[in-house]
Design brief:
The structure is a single chain. The protein has four helices and ten strands; from the N terminus they run βββββαββαβαβαβ. By secondary structure, the protein is of the alpha+beta class. The strands form three sheets. It has a five-stranded antiparallel β-sheet with strand order 8-6-5-9-10, covered by helices on one side. β2 and β3 form a beta hairpin. It is globular, with a radius of gyration of 16 Å. InterPro entries: PEBP, PEBP-like_sf, YbhB_YbcL/LppC-like.
Amino acid sequence: MKISADFTVIPDDFAKAAAPEYRAGGVPVISFPFYIDEVNPDAKYLHWTFTDPDSIPVCGFEWIHWTVANLPIDALMFDFNDSHALSIPPDFSRQMPAMIPEAVQGRNSSASKFLGRDNDPAVTMRYNGPQPPDKDHDYYLHVWATKNPLPGLNQGFWMNELLHRLRESGEQADQAGIFLTGRA
């Protein structure tokens, strides 16, 4: 599997400099586009995490920005004239519940009870764009592909549940990742 994007620095619309109409509760909520290529042909489902390892010195943990599970590959649009067979479009996080209701999104770090944020699912269970407070951060998008859906994951699952289900599945998941930079 190979993950790619048309950028190495996350564009402003999907990050800290997002316009007010691209925010909810002050948080950027329009997810960025990316591509998934060379997926194992036996794989039928995609799952991913988008996290900020550079947040560890700032807040003491790796910030979770977006988690997705049980996305059927055949529900995605295939364009055989494009070099990228699987394309995750911009704003997919907000559109996915209506487009592909069987896929689920988990909680991100904005759902933490320690932050005292509003419990708005548009902010706590969808994409949260990068907003590094101290310097540019490198964010990690990790994608897995499996033959079967991962059991027991419902809307609002936690990232650790996704990782446990991947391990418990008994499958050797196809996987890849990419680092993208978010500007301070």
